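Hey, can you fold this one?
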Amino acid sequence: MATTAPRYTKVAGVHVAYKVAGSGSTDLLVIPDGLIPIEAMETEPSFARFLRRLSGSFRVITYDRRGMGLSDPVTTSDPPTLEQWVEDAEAVLSEVGSDRAAILAMAEGTFVAALLAAMRPERVSHLVLVNGTPGVTAEPFRHWGVAANTLELLDETIEQQWGEVDFGIPLFAPSAVGDASYREWIKGAAQRSLSPATANAVFDVLFRSDVRDVLPSIRAPTLVIHRSGNRYLTSEHGKYLVEHIPGAIYREVEGADHVPYLGDHGPILDAVEDFLAGSRRIVDTDRFLTTVLFTDIVGSTEHAARLGDHGWRLLLDDHNAIVRRALADYGGREIDTAGDGFLATFDGPARAIHCARAVCAAVRGLGIEIRAAVHTGECERVEGKIMGIAVHTGARLASLAGSGEVVASHTVKDLVAGSGIAFDDRGLHELRGVPGEWRIYAVAESDFVG
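Sure. Predicted structure:
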């Protein structure tokens, strides 16, 4: 397997390490389970064989998410977000000249893969999820296997025994029980990937993310492969993915190892190769997952009456400048403005929340307050505008925000797990014109800027 030495690309000043192997006509981005850094992949014989076979048919791209392996570290005060890990993946693809790639994700790698496929349908040709999951620790997923309990034990060992995973091997790698070399490899891989402090910083986003609400927005042809005897994440996880990703195909293969490259990985790779060779579908790239931010000035009518037309116009100009400056700072895109309100989109919810908080703080200097709402959902691009139920949902959420408050949907809360953003539960609400009941959250005052 001809493999390049590790290389780096930069994402907003952060170095992200990657490797490329093989020279096939199809690019395949591999996102492994858990903590395995790129430097460790080729030192475990079974993993090396797994990648070697893939690189015989595809150009295989692997990378270390920020905070892991050879990529720049993160801190507990500035933990990574799922959307940043998606940005890392997209930056690596761009760096190696891959405009469109297939993605093979293992287990928790599903979180990044699903979000990338939903947000960037034009860049993802196919999606393969092996022993994947929409969420490990949330209900009802935590009861489908022993992963949630195992990860809680792992979390408890971070400070004193980081990397000691002997207790988990019978559960996620039963064929390696008694294999001292594998035990030393997995321990070394975890320790090389993350220090204890960094493990604390990334643990929530790595293992406690929940992407169930993203799944219906995936348009890429999708194959879900699950081992029938997997006790770590049982087949309910794979079947849930298939039931919620439009057009997804389910393939169950024999075996008890949760780790895909252990045991007989031939049937898994056969399925991958057949799927990528034979599956072709036109993907509607005008439908995509995005985060919408709505803001408006609280008591705008009263302010306008008090200031008069000229004074109100001057205040609006100052307000608009603050909003546009914040959008530029946090990577937002202005879609529409009407009166005193803004609609903007973002590649992920964490930066939309940070932007909203920054605007809330800044406009107080003008003697006004705004309210804001953040929601992530599927939209359609029509003549430069965005449309869809996600836009209506965001607008209805904004009407529930109080003065100086940022509210968010449950989808947003799930996607920013591990980001350090805290929320107060505001209960269930009906949103006019939007089906169902929605659980609403407000960004906690203790976490608020200003």
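The first helix runs from residue 38 to 41. Let me know if you want another pass with a different chain boundary.
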